[in-house]
């Protein structure tokens, strides 16, 4: 057993074994041996990703030795592309930094060979776009959607033309958009080089969908051995960077135009925002703009930026003169504290002989405790401002510097260690709503501040073209990446992260896969919709049902194939129904055409009348299990509630009328964990359609009559389920209000007469028959169909005293379901009918809903469903002949 720790040191987890294959054949062997031992496998590059998608508990494959320029693949590239581009076959484990150096003809620090001379042709080749650091591996970077800030250029992965993957069984797969690599030639080359493992073949998956799925797949498609990447010839040009200070209020109104300009001019654009508000409520910003200029224009580069004839100076010279390293992590590693901070630390009695970042985070936490967040915000602000000067240290002229793309773009210090920050990155369309989204992100700092919690860090906006990868965090034609950097170890970081995730989900934004990413599969399904379905389809083609590359990370986020679930066929129940059925485990209850309630344990026969007296026409029956007996409740013809509690011999005594008020339509019931039962219904016309409640005084005991709860009128029937809080359980009721929006009310005590919260709207989600659903993990979910028949859910934040809901989000798109019938829940299943009466089901898999499965049938009205240890049973009434029919999913 070994231990994995990611570079940012926020995740440490056990691993059965690390392997470091040095060749394709060794890599295939590692995968096969792991499979033979029953272990999962996953690739790890530089382990720079914050939520550690590389981790698996089985064999982690280190890829640093797969970092050359594989000749067998290069020689099989038959479509080289335009003259100023080079398609280069490069090992997936090479770091971006080493790749940049090799392309530029500079010796690699890892001592490995550079770009073969025959390929470089004496030109200076560059990556088309770069992030701010190059320590990531190429495959790790593209596998998470890593990007730069070139407004007209997409993420790095979009420059890949082909991938050579080692999948489950050691299978080699060439994935490419078009036939740039000749697959037979590749096979021959591999054989000639002795690289094709015994028994292996090379399979080709060609097409947009295949490559768009495989490029960004977080290692789920297997291990990238080689990537075929398009690089640019920048021999004659230099990248020139100009920076200038402004404020957010000064910049925001013209941001759209500035983005347009950056796109049109193929420029890099970044806006760094200091989130600390100034006295006037505004915030400091620093804008960085980069353009490619012919080297001959460098003496007058200022002209391109409105700076007259100012000459550009070499970026490396200016950086060497700057007081602080340009990357915040390195700056925070400094042992020498800025004077202001040193004074504050001394004042508070904190040791000052540690790294700047450690002192700052201690200070922030301490001042939060002391109620003085502003103190350290000022200090953090000073560090942030000092990081990127807007004037050149050499001559105090406006910042105008140049270098190669990697010299300007990658300012990470590879020689010194650095302070690990927490990073989250949100992506939104760069459209008219963008400034509101940025304000939302800045609002997170405000929210924390309002709680007296200081948050140290900065916000950076970068712009890029949308990616075609199916799981792209930046899919929007014009995308903005909003990066939030937070000082590690602060008390507010967790809350900030939650708020940032909520913000992205609420506004259809996305999150970087390689930064802090705590999405669950429900959120991933909501955010990626049909693209996720497409991605899963491609995964199924590439990897079939194999789980070799499945990890806790991919499972939690639903990055797995859809597995069909097998239901039995519809079976005739042997009774014509006079109302909707009810289920209690395997026992089925249904009124016949004469409105006499019958029941059976074995659908298809054995029906017996429960009672000889009829119940109300079309009355929905409630069967509840409490104190080891069943209780049946149903409306009679006048809208009053009948009740019968099972006797020791299994029979049911005469109906009794539950005292109290009359109801309108269908009652619903719930059992407390101690067996006490409660019943709810919408009151009749005289009761002004308010919520009515009745309850058993103790388990198996007599009932209080129906009484009105609260004052709000209901626009439809209620739904109820229990929620747990510290060992006790309370009921939550959902119903539509008169405005057509879903409302909720929850018990404030243990139930019965203990009281209710006032009715509250549960966000702006219209729908007529909401379902309160407690899933097998105890999570309460509100589900509703909107008027168009699309399903939405809001999840309750568990473990809190007060009921709080996450924002509504859509379930997987699928059939339009009938909102007048609503949804039914059982176990982990959710069921609904479309307008033709066809049954569809979705179930929770790893916390999120699977795609809707067509369960067939042609049914009327609501279905009944129950779940037990032996599976799920669904019963409904067939259209046309009124026959009760059922289907079962065996566990
Ligand atoms: C200091 C720093 C700066 C950063 N700057 C930026 C930036 O400017 N822009 C940006 O977009 N992001 C940035 N990031 C995020 C970073 O690019 C991603 O986290 C990236 O995934 C890290 O690459 P890695 O090689 O370390 O991947 P790892 O963390 O090792 O792995 C990430 C994922 O890729 C998979 N993977 C790795 N290698 C392979 C392979 N050979 N085959 C198949 N799958 C593989 C892993 O299984 C895992 O799922 C930064 C991160 C840090 C720590």
TrEMBL record:
Residues 11-234 form the FAD-binding PCMH-type domain. One of its GO terms (molecular function) is FAD binding. InterPro entries: FAD-bd_PCMH (IPR016166), FAD-bd_PCMH-like_sf (IPR036318), FAD-bd_PCMH_sub1 (IPR016167), FAD-bd_PCMH_sub2 (IPR016169), FAD_lactone_oxidase-like (IPR010031), PLL-like_beta-prop (IPR058502). Keywords: Oxidoreductase. It comes from the Bacteria. This is FAD-binding PCMH-type domain-containing protein. It comes from Crossiella cryophila.
